[in-house]
Specification:
- It is a single chain.
- The chain is an alpha+beta fold.
- It has four domains: 84 residues, DNA Primase, Chain A; 134 residues, DNA primase DNAg catalytic core, N-terminal domain; 117 residues, Dna Topoisomerase Vi A Subunit, Chain: A, domain 2, CATH 3.40.1360.10; 64 residues, no CATH class.
- A six-stranded mixed β-sheet has the order 12-14-13-15-16-17, sandwiched between helices. It has a five-stranded antiparallel β-sheet with strand order 1-2-3-4-5.
- It is globular and about 75 Å long.
- 36% of the residues are buried.
- Bound molecules: zinc ion.
- Zinc ion binds next to loops.
Length: 425
C-alpha cells in the first residue's frame, strides 16, 4: 500500500479535526463552526465513516491531509509529515513528496529547534546569570522555565551561527530563518537576538516557529524584539501558548486573553491554563477564529493602563465581529495579570475570572463614567456614545433578554435608553 493510503487508514479524521474544532455529534456525522470562514451557526460537517469533511458555507472539504494543509497552512508533504509524527507512524525516508518550499520550511523548523536548545543551554550557563536573576525575581520557577522553554541569547552574536555551522544549511535557508542576519561587509552571519531572555513561540501543533526576546538592560531597545515574518511564522496567525491552552479552553469553555508573555506564564502557573496572548501585535481576525474553534467565550484581561484599555477596546471590536461572547476583567490596585496572581494567588484570580463582567455591563460602566465626565464639561451627550457602541453588539450576544433590552440593542429605543439609563446603570 502506498504510504499516503496507509497513513489515512491509520488516522481517524474525526479525532484529528477535533483537536482543532469543537465538534458535536449529529446522527452519524459531526458538525461544528467552520474554521475556514466566519459563521454563527455550524455548517461544517465531518463524516467519520467516509473520512472526509465538508463545509456547506465556504465549500472547503477533503480528506484528513487536506484538512491539515488548510488549517496549518502547510504543503501536502508537511501535512503528511505532521500527521505521521503525531500518530507515531514512521514515514519512509524518501522525500518524494517534498517540494522546494516544504524543504525550505523544514530547514527553518530545524533551525528553530536548534535555536531553542541553544538558548536553553545558554540560560543555565554562566552567561545566563542576569537572565536567570530576572526570571527568578519575577517568581518563575525552574519547572515553569523548563515547561515554557525559556532561554537566553548571549551577547556574542555568534551562538546560533556556530550551532547552524555544524549543519549544512544553505545561505537561502539562513537568510529566510529570521534567526541570523548577514553582516553588511559580507563577512558571514550574526545572531538576531543578543543579550535577551527568550520566549519560544509555538504553532498550534506545538512546534517552535519564532521567538520573543525581552531586553535585560534598560538601554537595550526595543524592550521586546520578536521574530520577523518568515515562511513558518506569520504573526497574525499565531497566538502565544495556544498549543498548551487549547485543552483548558475546551474544558472550561472559555479562553482568557492577556497582553504579554509573562502574563501568560503567571496566569498559567496559577492553574488557569486557558490563557493566551497575541505575539506583540494587535489582535487579528485569524487569531480570533483560532480561539473560536475551541470556544466562543473569551475573557479579556489587559493591563490596567491606558495602553491596555485602548488595546482592550480595539480587540473587543474584532471579537464582537466574530460573534464571540466577550467578558472584560479588570484587576484593581493597577496590577497586571502576572502581578495579580503573584500577589493574591490562584484562587483570587480564578474568582476574578468568574466575576468578570460581560461586555454589556463593562460598556455600561464606562459609558456612565464618560457621561459623568462629559456632563461636567457640557460636551457631547451620553446617548451618542452608547448608540455608537451598541451598534457593534451582535444580536446573538449574551445580554439580558428582555424586550426592552432587545430594543436598546437594535437601536429602536435609544431615546428611552438615554432618558432612563441613569436609573438602571
Ligand atoms: Zn466554511
Amino acid at each position: 500500500m502506498d504510504f499516503v493510503e496507509h497513513l489515512k487508514s491509520q488516522v481517524d479524521i474525526v479525532q484529528t479535526i477535533q483537536t482543532y474544532v469543537k465538534l458535536r455529534r449529529v446522527g452519524r456525522r459531526y458538525t461544528g463552526l467552520c474554521p475556514f470562514h466566519s459563521e454563527k451557526s455550524p455548517s461544517f460537517s465531518v463524516n467519520g465513516d467516509l473520512q472526509f469533511y465538508h463545509c456547506f458555507g465556504c465549500k472547503a472539504g477533503g480528506d484528513v491531509l487536506k484538512f491539515i494543509e488548510q488549517i496549518e497552512h502547510v504543503s501536502f508533504y508537511e501535512a503528511l509529515k505532521l500527521l505521521s509524527e503525531r500518530n507515531g507512524i514512521p514515514m519512509p525516508k524518501r522525500a518524494e513528496y517534498a517540494d522546494a518550499d516544504s524543504k525550505l520550511r523544514g530547514a527553518i523548523m530545524t533551525m528553530h529547534e536548534l535555536a531553542e536548545q541553544e538558548f536553553r543551554e545558554l540560560l543555565s550557563s554562566p552567561q545566563g546569570s542576569d537572565a536567570r536573576g530576572y526570571i527568578t525575581r519575577r517568581g518563575v520557577s525552574p519547572e515553569l522555565i523548563a515547561q515554557f522553554g525559556l532561554g537566553y541569547s548571549d551577547r556574542s552574536g555568534r551562538s546560533l551561527v556556530r550551532a547552524f555551522d555544524r549543519h549544512s544549511f544553505t545561505s537561502e535557508q539562513l537568510d529566510a530563518s529570521g534567526l541570523v542576519m548577514k553582516r553588511e561587509n559580507g563577512g558571514g552571519y550574526f545572531d538576531r537576538f543578543r543579550g535577551r531572555l527568550m520566549f519560544p513561540i509555538h504553532n498550534e501543533s506545538g512546534k517552535v516557529i519564532g521567538f520573543g526576546g525581552r531586553a535585560l538592560e534598560a538601554e537595550d531597545n526595543p524592550k521586546y524584539l520578536n521574530s520577523p515574518e518568515t515562511p513558518i511564522y506569520k504573526k497574525s496567525n499565531v497566538l502565544y501558548n495556544l498549543h498548551r491552552a487549547k485543552e483548558g479552553i475546551r474544558k472550561h469553555d472559555r479562553s482568557i486573553l492577556v497582553e504579554g508573555y509573562m502574563d501568560v506564564i503567571g496566569v498559567y502557573s496559577a492553574g488557569v491554563t486557558e490563557v493566551v496572548a497575541s505575539c506583540g501585535t494587535a489582535l487579528t481576525n485569524p487569531q480570533v477564529r483560532m480561539l473560536k474553534r475551541h470556544s466562543s467565550n473569551i475573557t479579556v484581561n489587559f493591563d490596567p493602563d491606558a495602553a491596555g484599555e485602548n488595546a482592550a477596546e480595539r480587540s473587543i471590536k474584532l471579537l464582537l465581529d466574530e460573534s464571540m461572547h466577550v467578558r472584560i476583567m479588570e484587576l484593581d490596585e493597577d496590577l497586571d495579570p502576572d502581578e495579580y496572581c503573584k500577589k493574591h494567588g490562584a484562587e483570587a484570580y480564578e474568582a476574578r475570572v468568574k466575576a468578570a463582567k460581560t461586555y454589556f455591563y463593562w460598556l455600561a460602566d464606562r459609558a456612565r463614567a464618560k457621561y459623568r465626565r462629559r456632563r461636567q464639561k457640557r460636551a457631547s451627550p451620553f446617548s451618542s456614545f452608547c448608540s455608537l457602541r451598541f451598534r457593534d453588539c451582535p444580536t446573538n450576544w449574551s445580554v439580558p433578554r428582555s424586550p426592552t433590552m432587545s430594543r436598546v440593542i437594535s437601536g429602536s429605543a435609544k431615546g428611552w435608553f438615554w432618558k432612563t439609563s441613569a436609573k438602571w446603570l
